[in-house]
Structure formats: C-alpha cells, structure tokens
Design brief:
Shape of chain B: globular
Helix content of chain A: under 10%
Order of helices and strands of chain B: EEEEEEEEEEE
Strand content of chain B: over 45%
Distance between the termini of chain A: 37 Å
Largest interface: A-B, 24 and 25 residues
Radius of gyration of chain B: 14 Å
Helix content of chain B: under 10%
Oligomer: heterodimer
Largest sheet of chain B: 7 strands, mixed
Number of strands of chain B: 11
Amino acid sequence: RKEVEQDPGPFNVPEGATVAFNCTYSNSASQSFFWYRQDCRKEPKLLMSVYSSGNEDGRFTAQLNRASQYISLLIRDSKLSDSATYLCVVVNSGYSTLTFGKGTMLLVSP
Amino acid sequence: NAGVMQNPRHLVRRRGQEARLRCSPMKGHSHVYWYRQLPEEGLKFMVYLQKENIIDESGMPKERFSAEFPKEGPSILRIQQVVRGDSAAYFCASSPTPLQGSGNTIYFGEGSWLTVV
C-alpha cells in the first residue's frame, strides 16, 4: 500500500461548482497533514494545514479523519484559477520529512 | 523577505557530464530538503540537511548523487555522470525548525529543471 494515495483525476467541473478530494494515508502514527497546490511546471505551494477539528480558509475546507486515516479538501464556488494539481501531504512519526501523494488534478471550465 | 532561491532554473547537460544545483533557504531557515519530480510523477524525497550535516539521505540514489549544506553558502545537490533518467525537476525546500512535533511545514523554491541530452 502506498504511503499517501490520491485519485489522480482529472476532475472536470464548471465554474461555481463544489468539488471534494480525498486522500488516504497508511501510517497511523502520522503527525501533521497539509494540502499543497501545484500549477503546471511550478513549485508546490502550501494551501492549508489540516487539523482534526477541521479548518476553513475562505472557499476551502479541510478535514482529517484519524480513525479512517483519510484527509479531505472541499472547494466551494470553484474559480478558473483553482485549476491545478492538489497534493496531499503527511509528516510521519519517526520521519523527518514530508511525504507527498501524487496529486489530484482539477480542471475548472467556464 | 526572499523565499527559497534555486539556481539554475534550467540546466541542460549531455550524458556523462556533471550537474550542480544550488539552493539558498529562506532567511532564518536552517533546514533544507531536496525533492525530485520526474515527468508525470509525484514529488519524491531525496535528502534532508541542516548546516554542515546530512540528517536523512534515505531517498538519495546510492551512486552519482551527493548533497551538502556548508556552513557558509548555499546547499548543493550534485549529480555526477548524468543519464537521461536524471531529467527531472529538482525542488529545494526549507523550514525554520525540524518538522517532527512542530506543526511546521516546508516552503519550496521554484525548482531547477534538468534536461539530459
């Protein structure tokens, strides 16, 4: 089983739609969780941290379910500029680095 | 406040040559990470360094690859005798503290795109 798994997509949605991505992780001792965004041929950029209590930043909501070992990202009112690849990221206990999923591609169309 | 600086942004090498990629972390950050992204693949961890020390090199290929982060100057990722399979984007990232238990994360530079011809 891969450490961090994501549906590669692409998810094709119209502007204004709500879209959700899920991500599962294999290490139950994982400590910290993040969503990054990566545009084509650009560096990954931090989108938001993910907390057990859930957190919201504008149109973006992230949730963590430790019991089921999955993380979700909800994007409301999608914009064309949201088109990108969304990377699920974990910090595992005993490791000193971030482990990235392969990403989920989102395409928002007019 | 300058972000993570990488150079060169683009590098073309012939098979058998050496590639040197440089990374200066964000101001106040002493922890540096190198990741590689092959075409159509995810980011793969290579090495984690702190000033003058390699902390974790579990992702580094056993041969031809080396990394350093000297007391003065940028971190260097060195690839000797490059092959076509080394063509990839190499991203450097930095953090102010170790990641474990801190809740901190890492911030990436714009990447160095290596093409081996």
